[in-house]
């Protein structure tokens, strides 16, 4: 919580950053097969295996850190745990920026808080640190730090607007949705206590497209810094939450319907892949429930329809 209160105040004064955390990287790169020929997939140099790191051994775990970096880490930790500093961090940052000027202020931040938490400002600036850590057998998990600075009230308003339709907002369509798929104001601001993931608030489709471009650049960056890297994408940042809620509700209702049909045919409790429904019995059940007429149901199962929709 202390870090979440300090970092947002730094964002207006510093460019976007890529925070770094470390994890053991002990996997060896696969060697080229015996039948590989030069110029046909084996031309790429095989990187030698990195040494395994025992992170239970403090001396070995911190072997890649310089003395001044450890001193800075201790200083930042103590400052972030100081209640008086946390209570006035915005005022202190404002005063420091006025006294030092933008250039010296940025340098001070990079020597302390920014330098401790951030690997670099872009793909190029993070390379030296990644190479240094890799030489000591320490891998990297890159995190693209981008998050809007919204007040709890603004976050709640944005969330409720993006998760509800006009009919739901005026109260006429709420009863048609399952309770678990209705937006609740109490969960409007989901950032509190969440440090393991970014929280996105829907603005418009253009913003979603912007997030997509950012994700693509992150994928490219991950490919440049590692031969076997991976990237975690938060798909909820790429679409309207209302659609995701409704889509989840539709999938859940179809699952319930499928289980109900399976139970009527004596196949309750079986896994979905092991359940084989009789088409004739299914058509009869659907017609009795008034979902569709027999003629419409028969069209669902024609060869032409199955060939188009799967």
TrEMBL record:
The keyword Glycosyltransferase does not apply. InterPro entries: FAD-linked_oxidoreductase-like (IPR029041), Proline_oxidase (IPR015659). Residues 154-183 have a biased composition (Basic and acidic residues). It comes from Chlorocebus sabaeus (Green monkey). It catalyses: L-proline + a quinone = (S)-1-pyrroline-5-carboxylate + a quinol + H(+). Its cofactor is FAD. Pathway: Amino-acid degradation; L-proline degradation into L-glutamate; L-glutamate from L-proline: step 1/2. Residues 30-39 have a biased composition (Low complexity). Converts proline to delta-1-pyrroline-5-carboxylate. GO terms for molecular function: FAD binding; proline dehydrogenase activity. Its EC number is 1.5.5.2. One of its GO terms (cellular component) is mitochondrion. GO terms for biological process: L-proline catabolic process to L-glutamate. It comes from the Eukaryota. Belongs to the proline oxidase family. Coiled coil: none annotated. Residues 25-48, 153-183 are annotated as: Disordered. This is Proline dehydrogenase. Keywords: FAD, Flavoprotein, Oxidoreductase, Proline metabolism.
